């Protein structure tokens, strides 16, 4: 399991490296997002099969869903509070430059 | 994207229910999933390395660019840790789910391939709920001028599926910070989820 994860991280690092130094053909870059989406669909489909086959998961969807909802709410509240407490500065001027330019242009 | 993914998942579940797999086919499928996952992560990496525009935008925004995703991540994980006291999953399992930061397709597949299908299903639903709840709350937060909080609760989808509602309800000036926030969180998901799983 750990071996798989190390290979995954290596694949990620290798991808970032190739993307960053820009040796890849433009076509691949253009289709990159499509490849990612299609791969995700395929993986989600296969995960669906695994869920359908697994009776423990399939027949406990309700409790799984409730636990998932609890974790979602706690994560949302957690990130909300962390940002409220520690990120105090208001949107700075830089963020408005583009909009201002547009207004000035008119 | 969200609706399509849910439909694909449902088709998969029905397929799994109708077809019966023997254990050998199952092992073959598990190996297959591992290879596709490595393939996926590689292409996500290319996307990250190639996103120089996003990185450049990030530099013009100042320290907020680091602070916002950082505290979003910390807050999500602390939230999941507190949540672990209530739900039927242990601390590390909850951290793995919470570190999906709303990117349900990726986190769930990694968890179900490397840990358990059950926790993968939790991650899928939990992060999907995060996206749906955010979608409903963002306009309310924007009205109260809590712009950073609105982007924060969105998590990784602030760069794509939730970008529209953020910009529509909060203003055009949030485009950059929202995209960069989602971008950094997406990279963090690909690092933190496997890292947490390696401790389990």
Can you tag this structure with a few keywords?
heterodimer; A: about 110 residues; mainly alpha; 5 helices; B: about 200 residues; about 80% helix; about 0% strand; globular
Protein topology:
The complex is a heterodimer of chains A (106) and B (200).
Chain A: H1 2-21, H2 26-53, H3 55-58, H4 61-86, H5 97-105
Chain B: H1 2-18, H2 23-50, H3 52-60, H4 64-83, H5 91-98, H6 104-114, H7 117-143, H8 147-154, H9 163-170, H10 175-198
Helix pairs in contact in B: 2-6, 3-10, 4-5, 4-8, 4-10, 5-7, 5-10, 6-7, 6-10, 7-8, 7-9
Cα end-to-end separation of chain A: 59 Å
Q: β content of chain A, as a range?
A: under 5%
Specify the helix fraction band of chain A. over 70%
The pair of chains with the biggest contact is: A-B, 79 and 109 residues
Query: Topology as H/E string of chain A?
Result: HHHHH
What does this entry look like structurally?
The complex is a heterodimer of chains A (106) and B (200). Chain A has helices at residues 2-21, 26-53, 55-58, 61-86, 97-105. Chain A is mostly helical. Helices cover 82% and strands 0% of the residues of chain A. The model of chain A is unreliable at 92-106 (pLDDT under 50). Chain A contains 5 helices and no strands. The N and C termini of chain A lie far apart (59 Å). Chain A is extended. Chain B is mainly α. Chain B is built from 10 helices and no strands. In chain B, helix 2 (23-50) packs across helix 6 (104-114), helix 3 (52-60) packs across helix 10 (175-198) and helix 4 runs antiparallel to helix 5 (91-98). Chain B is globular, with a radius of gyration of 18 Å. The interface between A and B is large, with 79 and 109 residues.
């Amino acid at each position: 399991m750990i071996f798989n994860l190390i290979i995954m991280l290596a694949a990620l690092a290798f991808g970032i490296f190739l993307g960053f130094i820009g040796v890849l053909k433009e076509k691949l870059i253009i289709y990159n997002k499509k490849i990612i989406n299609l791969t995700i669909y395929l993986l989600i489909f296969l995960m669906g099969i695994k869920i359908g086959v697994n009776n423990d998961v399939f027949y406990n969807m309700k409790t799984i869903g409730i636990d998932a909802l609890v974790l979602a709410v706690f994560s949302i509240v957690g990130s909300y509070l962390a940002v409220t407490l520690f990120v105090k500065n208001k949107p700075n001027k830089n963020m408005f430059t583009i909009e201002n330019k547009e207004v000035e242009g008119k | 994207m969200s609706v399509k993914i849910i439909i694909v998942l449902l088709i998969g579940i029905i397929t799994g229910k109708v077809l019966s797999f023997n254990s050998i086919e199952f092992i073959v499928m598990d190996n297959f999933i591992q290879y596709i996952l490595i393939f996926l992560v590689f292409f996500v990496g290319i996307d990250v390395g190639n996103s120089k525009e996003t990185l450049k935008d990030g530099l013009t925004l100042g320290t907020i660019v680091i602070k916002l995703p950082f505290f979003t991540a910390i807050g999500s994980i602390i939230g999941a840790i507190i949540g672990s006291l209530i739900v039927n999953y242990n601390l590390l399992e909850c951290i793995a789910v919470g570190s999906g930061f709303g990117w349900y397709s990726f986190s769930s597949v990694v968890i179900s391939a490397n840990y358990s299908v059950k926790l993968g299903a939790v991650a899928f639903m939990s992060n999907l709920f995060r996206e749906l709840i955010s979608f409903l709350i963002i306009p309310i937060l924007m009205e109260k001028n809590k712009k950073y909080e609105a982007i924060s609760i969105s998590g990784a989808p602030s760069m794509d599926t939730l970008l529209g509602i953020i910009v529509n309800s909060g203003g055009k000036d949030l485009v950059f910070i929202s995209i960069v926030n989602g971008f950094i969180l997406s990279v963090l998901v690909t690092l933190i989820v496997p890292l947490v799983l390696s401790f389990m």
